[in-house]
Amino acid sequence: MSNAWGVRGRTKIRPPKKIVSNEEDFEKLWVVIRNAIKEIQHKNASKLSFEELYRKAYNLVLRKQGKMLYDQVELTIQEFLLQDTRKELLESLETDDERVFLLKLNSVWEDHLLSMRMISDVLMYLDRVYAKEFHLPLIYDVGLTVFRDSVIKYNNNEIGMRVINIIIDYINKSRHGEIIDKFIIKAIIYMFSSLAETISMDSSDGVPYGENYYLRYFEPVLLRQSHEYFERQANDLLIQQSGTIYIENAMQLSQDEEARIQLYLPDVTSPKLIELMDNDLITRNMESIMKLENDGLKSWVNDNNFKMLASLYKLITRVDTELEMLKRQLRAIVLLNCEELNTKTKEELELLQKQAEDQEPDKKTKKRNSKENATQFAVRWIQNFLDLKEKYDLISKNAFDGNPGLVREIESSFAGFLNLDNKTAEYLSLYIDDGIKKSFKDKSQEEVEELLDKSIIVFRFIKDKDVFEKYYKNHLARRLLQQKTSSNDVEMNMITKLKQEIGSSFTSKFEGMFKDIKISQDLSSDFNVSIAGDEEIKRINGRKLELDTSILTTSFWPMPINKTLVEVQYPSELELLKLRFESFYNTKYSGRNLTWAPNFGTVDIRMHYPKKSYEVNMSTYAAIILLSCFNESSEKQEYTFEEIYNITRIPKPDLIRHLQSISVASRTRLLKKTPMSKDVNPEDVFSVNDQFKSPQTKIKVLTVSSGSKVEDDTQRSETMDAINKSRILETEAAVVRIMKARRQSSHQELVNEVIRQLINRFKPQPSFIKQRIEELIEKEYLARSEDARDVYHYLA
Amino acid sequence: MSEEVSPYVTLISNDGFQFLISKDAALVSGTLKGMLNTSFQESSTNTIKLHELDGVLLEKVIEYLYYNLKYKESVDVPEFDIPTEMALELLVAADFLDV
Amino acid sequence: MSRRRGRQTETGEEFQVQGPSSALTSFLREQGISAEAIRTRYEEGLRRQLEEEAGGEEVENGGSDESDEEILEGEEETAEIKRIRERARAKRRRAQREDGLDDDEKADGNNFCIECDREFVISVYSKRIEKYGRIGYLCPECTTNEIKRQRLTKRNEIEARKRRKKVAAALLDKQEFKIPTLQDCCINVISKNIDAVDLLGDIGVVNMKKIGRILSKNRSLDNRTMALFLDPAMREIEFWDCSNIDSVALNKIAAFCPNVERLVLNMCGRLHKDNLNYYAQKFTNLQYIYLNGAFLINDQTWQDFFDSPVGKNLKGVHIKNTHRFTPDSLISLLDNCGNNLEELTLSRLDGLTSKSVYDLLPHYLRSLKHLEISYPNKEELIDDELIINLMGVNGESLETLILDGCSGLTDTFLVSGVKPFCPALTKLSLVMLDQITDSGVSSLFNDWAINGGLMDVNLSRCIDLGDDGVYAVLEHSCQTLVELNLNSVKNISRGLFKQIGRNLRFPLLTALDLGFVRSCDDSALAVISRIAPKLTILEVYGDNRCTSAAIVRDNLRIIGRQSDSI
């Protein structure tokens, strides 16, 4: 029906044709569309004309009958789905096997999508104009909703729940190893995911609304079932009480499930499922698994079972990046291993001894000096510790991927153990001492380097480094003085490494000791050159003599100057050398005080016996005794102990020892002792033993207790006292230094700064520092501030 | 890109005028696109009878289709000329064809 | 096109008209660019705009219907939403998995809720979260709440995305030239020759609206032409310029379109009391009414209108620019339809001089989604307590809050009113609130967990704001911000740009106004260009440190530099 308009004015715009809207007309137009929809749903679209349908819908919308059209379309779609599709599916559920049913469901779904596409294309205008204006969903989406409600959810989710159960069932079957049709599952799940549910804030059944059918109905069931499944699996495995079995199976289950998820579950589910699975398989049980005695963490660590450890590590990192469980357990095992070090080392030594005895049963059981045993124990102990550390290093590298958290935990366990007492410091020094003296000799440079580096590793663990310093100093002094060092280079190397670790204040004394020795060597050779032509010496001794001195700068060396030794009387031979050396020294250095230490050093004496001459090396004291009392020029043939003491003025305890070494010790009885007892009494008489014989020409007189040995308890406590004394001094020095610089400080700041400065040597307790502060206040180095009790200021 | 698809479609106005246009031009219109891409009658015959438009209007629409195709990507676009009298009817037609 | 008021602020500045469109137009005019080209482009832009939205948002400030946002824009949108949701969920889940297990919370048996500390039994559904630095599980109740909160955030993000698209499209069209549709071309011709049109016919609602808007813009809407739009089937009438429509013609609207549900009459100075009375009889379906400039209507007429059945039925009332809307008028409004109002705008109503009448608002208004109270007669009339009370009652549903020009407000209402009560707020406009301080804004936006993120924030002329406050806003809403106006927030320093460059990203930001923010310079522009990938328009009027040397994306349009041109 077009209106006729004449042209008025210049150019008139022709109005478009107006259509009169009418209820009846709706029916006429609608019925065509309705039939078309039906044809489309029956896959008979090809005979239809798009234009006709589109036009009819267009007209309806223009006539403001969009609502009726929209509603009717929805109803029509619904009719088909309810009556045809649903029926078909229900029948299939009854008669067909499950897989066929699923295929059918998928097929009707895809058909439906196709139909909806076509219907919605034809009704484009309805979408574009009507739906938009009234904020309604597009026809295509309506189709999805109708499918959801009429096919899947109809009758209390009848078909839907059946499908869900079938699929869950399949998934369970697949978990148990059966082969299933993955594609159909994936397709159905995809269908579920496409069916939107509204986002709602309420949830009356306790389950939060998902945004689509999959999330709302399917996923919760899946998660629940999966949880039950994994829980069951975990329990079955747990019963077997074997870490290996549990872990290997858990990993397998895990991998399988992840593969499964990839194949047909949507991305949104995988993190939830994985979390659940990890929880059931790993988090719940991992601690008990690790604790299993026979097939758990402990046995794997002990056996270096990298494979199992690595698997364990992999599993735990899935759920706990901090690895708290593992760290705890590991710590316990490390500590256990450390405690075993003692017993282990002891057993080893006993075994070695037994082996030695077995090998040479004839040789008299060399009764090892208990002190020597203790030293060997220390050396072996350190070695065992290093082995233990290396073991864990390998474990960390190979099984734990070098995880820094674990490495730290292990290290801190070691540190905790090693610092329980101060034995470690002592052992370490002995270890190095032993190495430098003996075992390093036959090792290559790289091996030596490695061993030194390992020593440094242990050194790092030690908290009270000043304890170590003390021991090391002592041992070093002994080595240097007794020339037991196998190589100066090795010594210097060690010192350099220590310096790198801690700084030079620590090692300066060591270096000083070294320098002393070096200078002494040079001095000695210069001196010997200078007395080479000395007539007087030749005259007294019948030959030229050589003197090798070691001049020790007192502050470097651990031995105190013993003033009583000044009293010792030297025989003329030695006295002359002494004088010569003193004057020689004074020409080189002026203003220095030399104090002789006869308690150290050795003398080589040529002894002529009727049948043989021997060259005997003995301690200085022993030489003094012999030269003073038993030389050719001696007045008497026999001397009592008292007499010898009066002549030589050697301190009595030392005198006893050295007399024993040349009169009691079996191979070096240069003197006869009456009575022949072991101990020495003041009335005992000593004379030259002219029956002395020895198979060797060069003989060495051994003095009792001259090596570096493990301290006994009294010695140890003496050492600690000394250390404590020096700590007091160091702390006080630190406090004064800090206060001098700052002029004023609060208590807490002062304490913190003191700790900071001393930490490389030892860690002072705050209460210890407080005591030192109090004492310094008494000594009037500091004073408390009047305004604030915990603020100090420096008194100049 | 299949060989069977012809690059041309026929549009017929309600007063019998036939226009042969390129498919690309037709696809400018959302409605025509739908018609050609869905498996209804039109897509198999490649012919569309438009009952809402007469020849004059259809011709103008087609002119626009080509105009759009030609200048779609450029920046300097000349105005599309529309005789005043037909503006409203053309608007209705354009609305119908989603163009 | 809001009416310019010659009133001075405390600082003596004239009110500026906000919004990119007006600034743009005037700039264009200044540049002497041909009116023809402007109009053509404008109309094309409008056409596109109107195609994509049902609300009249872009053209006018305020008074828009937020419910328009709910449209599903087609299949792609649905799938896209799905993808976004799924991705976000997976990300959240993954993030939660990365957290380690807290020692104290064992994975089985009883547990203490990390939020409310109640004891409960863990199940598969218990949510694991990280809070207060620890990791633990939530009891069922807290789990539900947490999920709700996350839903809200997600929803906000999706809404923001939709909004962004619209805004972007609208803006884009103002600069880039897109080939016009045939419909637009026709509308163009029709509008130019509107005198030659006697009847519009079945061109569709959308096209009708477009033509109507264009006619409004070029002042061609008059008695005759407006009649073209009248049709009994019309549900919405929007006339943006009624200055040429006389009272008789205005009655025709009701006569011919009695089914109208939404009525917008802008610049309706000729609206007579007879009209309003007639409307009260005829518009039986009326739900939303927007009257700007109805200064002929007196108090009694207003009251009669609200007293009528039509008045009682209203869901949205927007009144602007009349001094004759008195306290009694307001009381009548509140009495009659206050309880059901979803939208209320009271803007530039000089007749409202009594504070106590404003204070009545919280007693009546319960279900507001949109609230605008702007440019009151005196700033003392609108105080913190009023707003706080309003928020207390309406906060749950409130989506838009515009308080431009209420300079009597202080930080208190932000902290005690907005923060605790407004989880659904997506648009906030606080133009010219010069008592708002940096710390107030910071307090609002820092840890504002219940709110999922704002989409549209206007803080222009809040001169007391500085880096901290602005950063707090940005940090809170960076994921959802679509439009942001910081014009004249001059205390912003360079440091802010550095900070946001390092820490924040703005995936949806589309329009940004940094006019008269002096510290904005070329490097700031570069930063913004990088961190706001969808930003289309960036205004920098008065920022003379912004030069043409700034390195920005090609598709980011910077307006307001001395070197800029259209």
UniProtKB/TrEMBL annotation, chain A:
Residue ranges of domain Cullin family profile in the record: 423-663
Gene Ontology molecular functions: ubiquitin protein ligase binding
Keyword terms of this UniProt record: Isopeptide bond, Ubl conjugation
UniProt keyword Protein transport present: no
Pfam families: Cullin (PF00888), Cullin_AB (PF26557), Cullin_Nedd8 (PF10557)
Any GO BP annotation: ubiquitin-dependent protein catabolic process
Superkingdom of origin organism: Eukaryota
InterPro entries membership: Cullin (IPR045093), Cullin-like_AB (IPR059120), Cullin_CS (IPR016157), Cullin_homology (IPR016158), Cullin_homology_sf (IPR036317), Cullin_N (IPR001373), Cullin_neddylation_domain (IPR019559), Cullin_repeat-like_dom_sf (IPR016159)
Protein family according to the UniProt entry: Belongs to the cullin family.
PANTHER family: CULLIN
Protein name: Cullin family profile domain-containing protein
Species of origin: Ogataea philodendri
TrEMBL record, chain B:
Residues spanning the signal sequence: none
Protein localization: Nucleus
Keywords: Nucleus
SUPFAM superfamilies assigned: POZ domain
SMART domains named in the record: Skp1 (SM00512)
UniProt cross-references to Pfam families, sorted A to Z: Skp1_POZ
Any one GO biological process: ubiquitin-dependent protein catabolic process
Matching CDD domains: BTB_POZ_EloC
Protein family (similarity comment): Belongs to the SKP1 family.
Name under which the protein is recorded: Elongin-C
Organism: Ogataea philodendri
From TrEMBL, chain C:
Recorded GO CC terms: SCF ubiquitin ligase complex
Lineage of the organism: Eukaryota, Fungi, Dikarya, Ascomycota, Saccharomycotina
Limits of the DNA repair protein rhp7 treble clef domain: 111-145
Biased composition (Acidic residues): 52-78
Annotated stretches, region: Disordered: 1-23, 46-79
Identification of the protein by name: DNA repair protein rhp7 treble clef domain-containing protein
Organism: Ogataea philodendri
UniProt cross-references to InterPro entries, sorted A to Z: Leu-rich_rpt_Cys-con_subtyp (IPR006553), LRR_dom_sf (IPR032675), Znf_Tbcl_Rhp7 (IPR056451)
GO biological process, one term: SCF-dependent proteasomal ubiquitin-dependent protein catabolic process
